[in-house]
Amino acid sequence: MSHNYGDCYFCGGEVVEKIVELEYRWKGRLYIIEGVPVGICQQCGEKYFTAQVSEAIDRSVKAKEIKRTVSVPVKKYIPVEAI
Length: 83
Hints:
Layout: E1 15-26, E2 29-41, E3 47-48, H1 51-62
Antiparallel strand pairs: 1-2, 2-3
């Protein structure tokens, strides 16, 4: 079911619904949630979620079921002047 998000609050661009892979942090852990319907501004990239999608994301992260696990490399930021 598609949702009409209207125009972007920040830049006025067109907001179009897409299905994305979402990175979500909860209690110090990073989760990747697949298949999330989200409104995305075609001009600035701002994301918009309906209340139902936000609730479903919270439930997904709190659920015990994990579809799969991936390894993510972590790098430390090094300022240019330090190189």
